[in-house]
Every structure is written in C-alpha cells, then in structure tokens.
Write a structure and sequence with these properties.
By secondary structure, the chain is mainly alpha-helical. It has one domain (about 10-345). About 80% of the residues lie in helices and about 0% in strands. It has 16 helices and no strands. It has helices at about 10-35, 35-40, 45-60, 70-85, 95-125, 130-145, 145-155, 160-185, 195-205, 205-215, 220-235, 235-255, 265-280, 285-310, 310-320, 320-345. The protein is globular and about 60 Å long. It starts with 9 loop residues before the first helix and ends with a helix. The relative contact order is 0.18. InterPro entries: UPF0324_pro, UPF0324_YeiH-like.
C-alpha cells in the first residue's frame, strides 16, 4: 500500500519558504562578511546582513513572492528572540569576575548613563520618538546591533527604527576602531594596560569593534577590553527586565487601567540561563563552539530579515536627528567614559 506525503498548508509553506529564503541570503552574507576587506573594517555579519537586507528590500523585493513575507517576519521576530537567548553562551561569570569591581562598576555606569542620557536628549532635545531614542541609546550602551535586536521586541518597535539605530552603531563604532589607537599613541589616554582595556571595553559599541580597537594596541589590552565588553553584554538581562517593568507602568498610566502582568522577556531569561550553563562548563567546548556559530548565523538571519522589512523612506524621516543623537552619545562615551574609568581605577 503506497502513501504520499501530505503537502504543507499554504500559510506554513509560505512561512517555511520565507525562512529558507532569508537563510540562503544570510549564508551569502556570512561569506561576504568573511572577506578580508570587510572583516578588516570590523563589520560583523550582523551589520553586513542588515545592509544587504535593506538593499534587497528596497530595490529587489519584487523578485520574492509576496506571500513569503510571513516567513521574513517570523525570522525578524521569533527567530530573533531565540538567537538573543543563545547569545548568552558568549559570556561567563568567570569572565566578569576576572575584571573585578572596577570593570563591573565602569560597565554599569556606562550602560545606565548612556541609556538615560540618550533617551532624555533624544526625546526632549532632538524631538525623536521614544523607541528610536531608546534603540539608538541601547546600541551604544550595551552591545551594538545585538542590543538593538534585543530591545526591539520589548519595545514593540518598527523595523526601520532598529535600522537607523544600527546605522549609528556602524558609523561611530567603526570610527572608534581607528580613533582609540590614535588617541593612545598620541599620549591622550593616561591609563595603564588594565585601565585602558576597561576604557575600550566599556565605551566601544560592538564586540568586534572592541577587539579591532584594542588589538591595534597590544594583546593584554585586548583581553581586558573583551572581558569588560562581555560584562556590558551581561547587563542586557537586568536592563530588559527593568525596561519591561517601566513599560508596564507607563502603559497602565496611559490607559488609566490597572498595571498588566509584568511582560518578562523570556529570551532574556534564556540568555541568563545559557550564560550560567557556559559558566559551569557542563557542555563540551566543541558543542559550545558550534552553538555559538549557529547563533551568529541565526542573528545574521534576523538582521537580514529586519533589513528586508525596512524602507529607506522611513529612515529618511528620522534623518539627521538620529545621527545627531548618535554623535552626542559618542562624545559622552569618549569623555564621560574617560572620567568614569579615572574615578573607578
């Protein structure tokens, strides 16, 4: 008796096709990001992914069946949350302990200061909407594009707002890779190796950009800077929990209704749980390595999908005001971060 496989219902087939389409594009993005010229600039696959996605979404979108959009949206939303959770495998309690209290104090001060300063200035001085101001601040405060991705579902922000926030990370984070070594060689950064590593890890946007800036100085500085940067990444969890609590209160005040149940971001809990798993060394190193590579690919897929959903016309509406906010935050990171490190060390 012969049997044939039942075809997938149309919505599921469209979703799967959309996810596979983004996956193929992300595979090409990973290869592109691995080219020496692009890797040398410190552009991670996440950043290359959103750029390629935006180019496709604005100029070539007609080549993809419209029904596949449901799969693109799934990748930019649901897969994103899973990938952010697995990003916890990049940090460990041991790394945080290695930099001691000064590194932790600098990380907390920079993250909190940047989020508050950027959100207030963005809304009150530059007239940006809350989501754009917070996403831009989060990208500079915590871990670049990955932080923007983590904040987006909690804020329920539109894709183009995340795109402009990532643009500031690319611009000013890349600038840091070139300026920080210049500042050091010019004798303007009066730090020993430990403090210099704390300064770079505490104030540069992306992990790859931290490594790029510090590796142009020396290996010892690179090690400290990377650990401090991962400490900032670890702060993503408490920040998201506090943000969820604040949003619950603000929405209740706006509606005049009792506060709703706290929207705990499950992906942030997963992030913390996997960081603990990584700290306990209960999984073989080979498994952790493979999981981290797969996670970077999943994050690249999410960024690519986000780019596909973004329209240049939406970005133009934010225009120079977002870049002005990015520049103000950047000045704060350079000068405010310098003062914080001097006080902490």
């Amino acid at each position: 008796m012969s049997s044939t496989a039942l075809p997938l219902p149309s919505p599921w087939r469209d979703k799967l096709n959309g996810v596979l389409f983004v996956g193929l594009m992300a595979a090409a993005v990973v290869q592109l990001a691995d080219l020496p010229a692009i890797r040398g600039l410190g552009f991670s696959p996440l950043v290359v992914g959103i750029v390629c996605g935006m180019v496709y979404g604005n100029f070539l979108r007609g080549t993809m069946p419209a029904d596949w959009g449901v799969g693109v949206n799934f990748t930019a939303r649901k897969l994103l949350r899973i990938a952010v959770a697995f990003y916890g495998l990049n940090i460990s309690i041991q790394q945080i302990a290695a930099v001691g209290l000064p590194g932790l104090a600098v990380s907390v001060a920079v993250v909190v200061g940047t989020l508050v300063l950027g959100t207030v200035i963005g809304q009150r001085l530059l007239g940006l909407d809350r989501d754009t101001a917070m996403l831009t601040s989060a990208g500079s405060a915590i871990c670049g594009a990955a932080a923007v991705l983590a904040f987006e579902p909690t804020l329920r922000a539109q894709p183009h707002k995340s795109a402009v926030a990532v643009a500031t990370v690319v611009l000013f984070g890349t600038l840091s890779m070139f300026l920080y070594p210049v500042f050091y060689r010019a004798g303007w950064l009066h730090f020993d190796t430990q403090a210099l590593g704390i300064y770079i890890g505490g104030t540069v946007h992306e992990v790859a950009q931290v490594v790029g800036a510090a590796s142009n100085i020396d290996p010892a500085t690179t090690e400290v800077a990377t650990i401090v940067k991962m400490t900032r990444v670890a702060l993503l969890v408490p920040v998201l929990l506090v943000l969820g609590l604040w949003l619950r209160g603000s929405r209740a005040s706006a509606d005049g209704a009792p506060a709703a149940k706290l929207p705990v971001p499950w992906f942030a809990i997963g992030f913390l749980a996997l960081a603990i798993v990584n700290s306990l060394h209960i999984l073989p190193d080979a498994v952790i390595t493979v999981a981290k590579r797969l996670d970077i690919f999943a994050l690249t897929m999410a960024m690519t999908a986000l780019g596909i959903e973004t329209r240049f016309s939406q970005i133009r509406k934010a225009g120079p005001r977002v870049m002005a906010l990015g520049l103000i935050i950047y000045a704060w990171l350079i000068f405010g971060g310098y003062a914080i490190v001097k006080l902490a060390t």
